[in-house]
Amino acid sequence: MINDKLPKIWHGGDYNPEQWDSQEIWDEDVRMFKLAGIDVATLNVFSWALNQPNEDTYNFEWLDDKINRLYENGIYTCLATSTAAHPAWMAKKYPDVLRVDFHGRKRKFGSRHNSCPNSPTYREYSEKIADKLAERYKDHPAVLIWHVSNEYGGYCYCDNCQDAFRVWLSDKYGTLEKLNKAWNTGFWGHTFYEWDEIVAPNMLSEEREDNVSDFQGISLDYRRFQSDSLLDCYKLEYNAIRKHTPDIPITTNLMGTYPMLDYFKWAKEMDVVSWDNYPAIDTPFSYTAMTHDLMRGLKSGQPFMLMEQTPSQQNWQPYNSLKRPGVMRLWSYQAIGRGADTILYFQLRRSVGACEKYHGAVIEHVGHENTRVFNEVAQIGSEFNQLGDTLLDARVNAKVAIVFDWENRWATELSSGPSVSLDYVNEVHKYYDALYKLNVQVDMIGVEEDLSQYDVVIAPVLYMVKEGYAAKVERFVENGGTFITTFFSGIVNETDIVTLGGYPGELRKVLGIWAEEIDALHPDETNEIVVNGSRGSLSGSYSCNLLFDLIHTEGAQAVAEYGSDFYQGMPVLTVNEFGKGKAWYVASSPDAEFLVDFLQTVCEEAGVEPLLSVPEGVETTERVKDGQTYLFVLNHNNKVESIDLKDSQYQELLTAQQLSGTVELEAKGVFILAKV
Amino acid sequence: MINDKLPKIWHGGDYNPEQWDSQEIWDEDVRMFKLAGIDVATLNVFSWALNQPNEDTYNFEWLDDKINRLYENGIYTCLATSTAAHPAWMAKKYPDVLRVDFHGRKRKFGSRHNSCPNSPTYREYSEKIADKLAERYKDHPAVLIWHVSNEYGGYCYCDNCQDAFRVWLSDKYGTLEKLNKAWNTGFWGHTFYEWDEIVAPNMLSEEREDNVSDFQGISLDYRRFQSDSLLDCYKLEYNAIRKHTPDIPITTNLMGTYPMLDYFKWAKEMDVVSWDNYPAIDTPFSYTAMTHDLMRGLKSGQPFMLMEQTPSQQNWQPYNSLKRPGVMRLWSYQAIGRGADTILYFQLRRSVGACEKYHGAVIEHVGHENTRVFNEVAQIGSEFNQLGDTLLDARVNAKVAIVFDWENRWATELSSGPSVSLDYVNEVHKYYDALYKLNVQVDMIGVEEDLSQYDVVIAPVLYMVKEGYAAKVERFVENGGTFITTFFSGIVNETDIVTLGGYPGELRKVLGIWAEEIDALHPDETNEIVVNGSRGSLSGSYSCNLLFDLIHTEGAQAVAEYGSDFYQGMPVLTVNEFGKGKAWYVASSPDAEFLVDFLQTVCEEAGVEPLLSVPEGVETTERVKDGQTYLFVLNHNNKVESIDLKDSQYQELLTAQQLSGTVELEAKGVFILAKV
Amino acid sequence: MINDKLPKIWHGGDYNPEQWDSQEIWDEDVRMFKLAGIDVATLNVFSWALNQPNEDTYNFEWLDDKINRLYENGIYTCLATSTAAHPAWMAKKYPDVLRVDFHGRKRKFGSRHNSCPNSPTYREYSEKIADKLAERYKDHPAVLIWHVSNEYGGYCYCDNCQDAFRVWLSDKYGTLEKLNKAWNTGFWGHTFYEWDEIVAPNMLSEEREDNVSDFQGISLDYRRFQSDSLLDCYKLEYNAIRKHTPDIPITTNLMGTYPMLDYFKWAKEMDVVSWDNYPAIDTPFSYTAMTHDLMRGLKSGQPFMLMEQTPSQQNWQPYNSLKRPGVMRLWSYQAIGRGADTILYFQLRRSVGACEKYHGAVIEHVGHENTRVFNEVAQIGSEFNQLGDTLLDARVNAKVAIVFDWENRWATELSSGPSVSLDYVNEVHKYYDALYKLNVQVDMIGVEEDLSQYDVVIAPVLYMVKEGYAAKVERFVENGGTFITTFFSGIVNETDIVTLGGYPGELRKVLGIWAEEIDALHPDETNEIVVNGSRGSLSGSYSCNLLFDLIHTEGAQAVAEYGSDFYQGMPVLTVNEFGKGKAWYVASSPDAEFLVDFLQTVCEEAGVEPLLSVPEGVETTERVKDGQTYLFVLNHNNKVESIDLKDSQYQELLTAQQLSGTVELEAKGVFILAKV
């Protein structure tokens, strides 16, 4: 349990009373929070300037007051450290807190998430205020959890960062000789003879817009270094807090598939993962599901916090549509079904000015409770009270895992050739989406995860194969596992140096193939995947595009062949029997229909069962606690759907009804089915 | 009359003899001007470097010569002050004249309209040269009007501007406390404790491209400040001139719907409004008409100057098509029909080098008068001589007004959410266009205009409601007026702070509605406006898109409802009887067909009559002088159109024919009909 | 012959052994080079940092070793000077080597082709290393040719460049008075009174993205100046080498239609032209053919080197497709057929890291010879051995020339108006493409070329007419030549100042027309070219777009007229009998069908014969040596084509077969037909 002071699904969100100077408003807030079943408020996210009006003065009285008032009314605090935006006075007095951007421009005061992670000033004062807050509130009964800074992100290219980068590199490589080799600086005569010849890679040196780099090695390391630099800032605050409050968990809110930080590395330093879920108007439901699974996977399945979602609309999308009636509730249970133990909103009360004033909130500008949105929040509040601690700490048990790796993603996207349209996350999501449609539970795992717990492991576009990973895959397959990978895998090592001797490099043995060439065509140009006979659900012909490996089998069996172009008849889908298991290779980027048929076949062969068979547009996910399963059935459609529960008997938690056989699930409706 | 020395429609344009060093050319100029009926030349627009070759030397002999020569040949001078581009020597010696751009880059010498408005050097020397010019030419009989600088525009972000901005803010707000509240700096901890913590909002601080800002308050004030800064530059020159020549009018040429300056504020400082009309290849005729009406509205209906138009093509459009035969004449009369008392061209003679050498001119590169374009100019020249002073000072009488406000426009466009596709000017133009098609005369008015002179006032997207404006609207409606406003109105005050208590804020009472939510969808997604029964021309169903207010009536009547989505059946068009008048609310962005039917209904109910009923593509407008009406009928079509003048008897001014009943108007033809 | 040490078509490419530290790899390289028939390796292209690890140390032992080892194995060296990317230490110690970019940003170390051409440091050290290399290897028997730097390009805007620009201008114009007149600085008051008031034209001064400039004069001169500055760098190295090795030819590799350098000026300083041929996925075959012809034309028909092509795919295109089987061979013979005496690849061995690791190579990452690509290379190697010196030094004899001029291109693209869609190279290619389809051999010539050797000279969009060129054209036509030019010709002189008195200026007399106006429409809007009766293959109606001159004949005959718009019936195609010849004017941008019919007519009238009549998709070109013709027939299609050789008897060089009558040419197949 995140904190057993509040043994239920937490319900609350970001609350900024410091933006108001009105007792009447503050009183209304409390009154309405109670009506909505709000029991947690995230305080102090952006109050640094208020907390520390100048270098020597700290002022927390206002915060004491807010925490106390809420607590007296039964509302706990998720306490932020306020360091996500530095005060204006600090930027003026110590310009080192200001970043230099990708274009090499020194920024001035403004916006947020704006501090250089290697600024001595920022590090000193952010650690100091975290320390002061922890010391002050360490024994306050209201504090459930610490929320360090907010949505860390962005890179800086200032001289302080450049100096720190050189130190980071020296720590990593030891000698310039090793660095020169790791980056292949013999290319274009980029050999470094002194550490301070190395400059930060941005628009002024090795990079251009859109992840284009002339040297992948330095660009990859700079991403690692900046991710680490921000993580160091987080750890400074973490340690300052931990010193005072060993028992209160500490987190920072992540952002799903945000590209710039290696969240698997971050999660190791977090007591609980929390994240902010903001689907865009066109985000597929399965993408959100995948992201929940990924956030759960960051700490190997440990339940996570949904730290932010909007009660209705956002403000920063191009078109900020309302969440339709029922959708916010539906998506809240989607999060819970995939491992969330909290549902928090951004924001509890809408601000009156600046850029987020049109972002949804529990209390809107009209200021009263007679709104559709407020009523939907209150309904969830009421349901969470009813659910109590039933679902808390329940785990998801998956037999299929999909590998996700930020460093691999960076390397893939930095690659110059073969195709600008190769999008790592999109390729991963294609595989996830097929399993989602098949109602197969999936874990999203990092490369350090133990594979032996899974029957099937899928690693789409495993371009970068880290040290020891190929051997790990071999052991997994030898022991009976099914491994699937794709085109553009096995190509490079951790510093983006090609593994010589034939693609897919270290994976060649387990896959039993050699890829002689890689064709790249405009995404509109397709080839066909023609199945040799049939295998399971696979038969006939499918479409593929993007990249096309020209492979030769070396022990593997060709399950399907290209249907056209000069490589017509060459294998496009192969499987290699290896030890007790199988290793599949998908040599091009297939259409959705292929992936459903293919993964259905793979799951059947591996004995992996779907959770339930449901109509299209209905989502399933399951949590398990003490042997009791809780099956979530989520109807994303705009119409009632019939769900065939077969012979099983279930207790539906929200209605306390007993269900079995064919039952009706309303549009946007939710079942939480406890097997009885 | 602008200047009674020349009591007719002035005919001339920008003339740059200083670009030539040839008596032969200058002689040809005069010969051809006479052939074309040119009687005004705008001199000295870009001659600063020539007038002041270094810090201490002034040289106006060349200008004496040109003014005199022209005057001896019957051509008057519109005398510019030459300050729209600083000399190269000044940029080298005093770099403070150079701007810092939106990206924070210090510019070097180049281009035009390039001076920092807060540069001490620029202010000193621009005032000084205006003073010298006024002193020298104050008694010259040729000078009809002063033309200060040229097309003021652009913003600067240098340190001088930043310092001046702090002073401007301090003058406006008095205390930082008030500023912090006005900008809601509690958001994201942006509280300022010292004035010099405030920095100019650009790409390096609060803003990004395309009017995106993290703090609308500072961004809005910076626009006001920069508009004021340039206005201060104008006023320095104005006052320097006025001191010497109290009786010669002073103007500067505006640019229609140019976004960066608050022209209503500027017009107060101008003796007569003048503007440059450059429709793009795809500009609707009604947009040009609207812009003329707006320029007329800047000084409450006072006739204005058309300071620039091209005789044929432009050079800076992507595709610079020729003005087809007759079009330049047609558009000239469009300007006159809407309040222009001058028709001036850019330019009288084409330059031989640099970026405007492919811009149309009265005298083209071929250098003689035997061209289509020259002949069209000469025809107009002849007609203007014939028209004499008949139309001078005639006014336009409109009973319908559309409100246009630059500050509201800035705020609307700076808004983060709900939709990036909301375009203030486009929404205004949609209403104007419907009235244009209905042949209803319109005034474009600012928010300071007296409303009592109108029967119908339309304020599309009145997002920002300035102090006292809601009360003014209430009085107008109480007294019998018809008021129309739309979605995204009544939301904020002058510092972009939301009016709490329910949208549309201060307008809620007069409108009798509450807007609970605002949906935003991609512009391709539409809803329907379904009329409840019918009202006037309104019946059946129309289309709407962009934003969709979910409104509840509070006294108003729902005239039409949404036809689909979860708010199907909620009101989309309401009318509230308030005192003796009515207040309409249009809750979404409707299609053109709706607006024609709706505004026809509104006009009929308010007793507003069209000028005439004419075929599509024919435009009408009317000026009135001493009780005599002059009805302009303008045929934009490529074919002859029949015009039904009914029983009225008219004298057509250009042909001196008597017209009545059904008459034919040639393609691109013009009637100026004096009622007899 | 480029160098008679190797009297055959050279076969080899860029080789970077310094990127490897493995005797095993180096041994494999040699073994595989032999298998592939490689006899030339380009060494030392990017090894500056290795050659000169610090300011005082030079190290060429590694290079001795590589040159010797290759030579011992029968492989010659194309020896580069390594100056195309400066060492990191140099950038640190002497920042003047770093460029300032178009946005005014000082760059940091990174990428390549990165040195400021006016950096004293770069000039000193690049000259010095060229000198040292030449001294060291001047007598080495392996060295066939010098390869100075690599793919010169890019502009710099630093203060050193700005200072040098002022000197360059002062040398060119002598006085500021002349410069002010040449640039027409009277416009916008840009008069310069001191040389140091002039600043480099970039985003901070006169220019914007995409060749937009406010002053064409300065922008045009800056392009000339930067092209000259880089050429000066080349010449410094050239002279340093020439001093030591008077007999070894020197070149640098050009880039076809690369926009930034005036290659006609460069070619004068090169002993042999070499270039790098990288067609994009959608480059028409005729565009590549035109570029070969242009490279041949740089030195008036002298055979050239194909210095780089990829054996299969590239890495820097958006989509890097494989070269399909046979295509690389086909394109190699296309180059040879148009004047290449070498076929070299980038690259002999793929690098393992950095941005070109996915660029095709003779030796791929797999490292062995059993690949499709290697086999295709080896086949060519074998064929070149068989061809021996047969084709070396053979010339192309064309009776039709197309004029291409970089300065005219710059001026055309810098023009503000009439149309942003006017693309000089595209207009030139349209004419070339028609002749390509007609199988008429073409020379691409500069403006200094003697015209008397041609029957037909085509100068599309001859916007800038240089001093004496109009007279040259007149003489050519008077003497019986056929001259063709188009809309937007004859407009300006060399400093972009308009020739007054009527377009097309100096060409008006020979063309016998006057263009009164130039209409510009969106490229989607078309007009018709309606032929008056018929002439040769011309009849009926064709389409045209982009620009539309409104011309009046002054002696010329109107062969076709516009079919619509207000200039319907005005001439669109005219021909003027002038002396013994004819001058044609095409007043708009016609469709491909028109150009084929038009140029067929022109060729017939001029007595120019096609090489052969072949099916569409088959290309012909011919080289001649000592009276013997070698006709290349290249089948770009994916199917066998029948070629009708008529009664001629040929020896096919690659198969040694005797051919005549109708023969079959395989898909992607090549004939080299020696007339017998």
TrEMBL record, chains A, B, C:
CDD domains the record matches: A4_beta-galactosidase_middle_domain
Domain of life: Bacteria
Glycoside hydrolase family 42 N-terminal domain boundaries: 14-386
Every Beta-galactosidase trimerisation domain range: 398-608
Keyword Ribonucleoprotein set for record: no
Entry EC number(s): 3.2.1.23
Record carries keyword Cytoplasm: no
Reactions the enzyme catalyzes: Hydrolysis of terminal non-reducing beta-D-galactose residues in beta-D-galactosides
PANTHER family named among the record's database cross-references: BETA-GALACTOSIDASE GANA (PTHR36447)
Family of this protein: Belongs to the glycosyl hydrolase 42 family.
UniProt-recorded name of the protein: Beta-galactosidase
Species of origin: Planococcus dechangensis
